[in-house]
C-alpha cells in the first residue's frame, strides 16, 4: 500500500507553529514555501512538505537577525526550500552556520572587551603595533556597509588614526576594538545617542560612568548583560540552524 497523503488547511498549518494564518500566506507569497494546491472553493491545501518547509522558516525567522549577511543567508535557504532545491538549500545552510559562528566569535571577543572596560582597565591609548584597518576592511569584518562606518564617524563615535597611501582613512587596532563595542551595542538595540554619551565618559577618563551613560528606558542598564544576552541569542540561533540539515533529510525521505 502507498503512503496516505495528509492535507492541512492554512489555519491548521499556522496553528502547528503558533503563527497567524496570514504568516503562512506571506511565506507562500515570498517563495519560502511551495505553492499550495487549491480546493474547488479556492482554499489552500498544504501537505507534509509544507509542514517541513515552514519548520525551516521558523528555524530562521524564529530568532533575531544580527546583521544583513545572516538575514540574507537565511533568505537564500528559505528560497531554495520553497523551490525544492534541496542541494542548494543544504549548501546555503552550511554558509549560514559559518556566518553565525563568525558572529559568535565577534560577540565573545567584544564581551571580553566590555568586561575590561566595565572594571576600569580600559584606557584610550592606541596600541603601538602598527596594525591599521581601512573602512572597507572593517565593514567586511562586521558585515555592515562602508556607509555605516562613515555614519559612526560623522556621529563622533570613532575617528581615524592615520591615512593610507592614497589618502584613505585608517583605524588603529585600539579603534578596531572600540568599533567592536559600538557594533555590539547597536546589535543590542542601543541608540547612537546613548552610545555617544557612554563613549564620551570613556574619552574624558570616566570609564566607570559608561554603564550609567548607557542607561536608556528601552533596555537594561547593565553593559555586561548586554554582551551576555547577545551571545545567548546567537547560540540559540546557532542551535536552531543545526536542525535545518536534518529537515532537508526529512524532506528527501518524503519524496522517496
UniProtKB/TrEMBL annotation:
GO MF assignments = DNA binding; DNA-binding transcription factor activity
Specify the superkingdom: Bacteria
Domain HTH merR-type, which positions?
A: 7-48
Protein keywords = DNA-binding, Transcription, Transcription regulation
Q: Which InterPro entries has this protein been placed in?
A: DNA-bd_dom_put_sf (IPR009061), MerR-type_HTH_dom (IPR000551), MerR_fam (IPR047057)
Name assigned to this protein: Predicted transcriptional regulators
The organism's taxonomy opens as: Bacteria, Bacillati, Bacillota, Clostridia, Peptostreptococcales
